[in-house]
Design brief:
The protein is mainly α and 81 residues long. The protein has helices at 2-18, 28-61, 67-73. It is elongated. The relative contact order is 0.16.
């Protein structure tokens, strides 16, 4: 389950990077045009990183998966290991 969630988050970060575009020129004005997208990417990357870190610590804290934990956290990963 932990490896699956790592893979999903890696795909999410990769898809986010695809939306970043290079500036049209070498001027400060051209850089200002892409700045909002870049700031949004940085905030999204931080959010995904915090989510991954919390999920990693939650899984590490479990010695054995329990039924109440398996359902919500592994909804798309075909069940608990």
């Amino acid at each position: 389950m932990e490896v699956f969630s790592d893979g999903v988050l890696a795909i999410v970060i990769t898809i986010m990077v695809l939306e970043l575009h290079e500036p049209t020129g070498a001027s400060f004005a051209a850089l200002k045009q892409v700045a909002p997208t870049f700031v949004a990417y940085l905030l999204s990357y931080a959010y995904v990183g915090i989510y991954w870190n919390n999920h990693h610590h939650l899984v590490a804290a479990l010695k054995q998966p329990r039924g109440k934990f398996c359902g919500p956290t592994s909804f798309g990963s075909f069940g608990c290991p």
